[in-house]
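Chain A, query sequence.
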Amino acid sequence: MSSGERQRLVVGLQPVREAIRVHRDAVTQVLVDERPMPRLEAIARYAHDQGIRDIQRLAARELDRISGGVQNQGVIAFAPPLRLVDLDELVSDPNLLAIALDEIQDPQNFGAVVRSAVAIAGAAIIWGEHASAPLSTAMFRTSAGAIEQARLCRVRSLRDALRRLGEAGAQVIGLDARAPSALHRIEVQSPLVLVVGSEHSGLSRGIRACCHSLARLLSSGTLDSLNASVAAGIALHTVLVSRDNS
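Chain A, predicted structure.
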């Protein structure tokens, strides 16, 4: 399924370049700052070389108006809607590695988690449709183009999704700064879901109940918590190292 039928607004040099690389001429339009700058000339040529016919040069103020205040670096594209995967696809994946987001409401954090998940481990991202940041232009921008390659799964209830994944054999580990066990001490399995809590209150009570275990990332008590995207990145790297050493 997709996130909608309308074309999706993508802004910024790297996000636009990645959208063009992945979708090629399915990107219907590219708008470039009219000022003669090498990096802008390069993205315009790249769009042309990928078969995009509608490439327009506009004034910076017009690009700012279209991007709605999101920093655009002089380039905007209209790309196809994101493809979202059904939970069934993740449930049936015996090698699943996923990050589940419990009420991550900051679009910058959401986008940065996507960037870490794709770059570090090609991990899927699962989140509930309520009390979470939307799929927005700002979120796409922060992901630095990783959103185009991400395996995205939006569910009605994260709690129900985690229960279903657990019942299907997935190991569900919640990240908690106060957990007695460190993640690198836990024997991780496949399929595996790592759950990251909200920016303000961490894991909610209902989500905690769905986790088979809780794990901390830091061995010292000097820092109580980490930014969600940093926590996701450290956790994924820890899991990959643990698997390599097993």
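The chain has a mean pLDDT of 92. The first helix runs from residue 13 to 23.
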